[in-house]
Known about the structure:
By secondary structure, the chain is α+β, with helices and mostly antiparallel strands. Helices cover 34% and strands 24% of the residues. The protein is built from eight helices and 13 strands. Helix 4 (172-183) crosses helix 5 (206-214) and helix 6 (230-258) runs antiparallel to helix 7. The chain starts with a strand and ends in a 13-residue tail after the last helix.
Amino acid sequence: MGGLGTRRTDITRDDGTWAGLYLEVRAPRRPGLCLFTAERRVLLAQRSQPVLLARVDEDHCGVEFWRTDAHRSPVPPPRAETARALAGDLGRWAHRLASHLLDAPGGPLHEGRWLIAPESPLLRGNHGRRPEAEYWREMLVEGHPDGYIDWFVHNGSWEILPLRPMPDVGDGRVKAYRKQARDGTLPPVLLWWVSGLDCHLVLDGHARLAAAIAESTAPPLLHLHRTAPGDEVAAGTARAVRRYEAELARHAELRAVHGAAVPDGTATAGPTLARRLRELRTASRPSWAWPLPGGAQQWHRVAEDVTSDRSWPGAGRPPA
Length: 320
């Protein structure tokens, strides 16, 4: 799936600081890292290899999952010199990651509009000001090979599910990244929001995330999620422009009656228009998933294959 056609646009805040990288991807084929669904069942596969099997509870209170060791990051490991050169510049990191994701045969990008951003409304903040290590450990979904994403207890928490086991503090990569975490040159961790699981998946940076937790520091993050399709953006833009024009017309009528002491409205209507247009391009939209060929029966066959002789309650019984 290499060489995807795309258009990139940097998004800035009102103060001019970088807020995200907007991608318009033209790729009619399925992505290499693809979500499949069959009834309440989910299969995440990377180039036909099962990465994650999940089954949503009948009462929709959570998701049982089984994680294989098949996930391979679609992004090559960053070199130390690259980390030093791009230290703290998440905008440049976003462009670098976008280039790799667009070329990677095992990445999640498909046709549509995407955002890579340093902030996400889908990740609960550390409002209690707890130690960073405590907060980030709590955000991680535990369990390997199987575990549970609890939608009832953690409703609105939007946790983080690693796609492979987190390395421990004795891992050589973690030791190297801990120094970068202390130096402020740690490359960002790339998270992918998957609405069907109601959580973030770690696409790249498991060892870097472990290093930040070991150092009790907030890891630099970049979030990847789908945004509104073109027709929705076009319709929303037209509505926003009409509201802007109506507000200016209202101020013009007031000025005609009360004189030039009445402002022309651009000081308030302009920033409001800019904010609405930015929100149209950055708001999250549900993840795409493809129907699983063979349906629930195939999902159960895959579950039996990857779990081999180990009993996984999440597999349940195959449908008749």
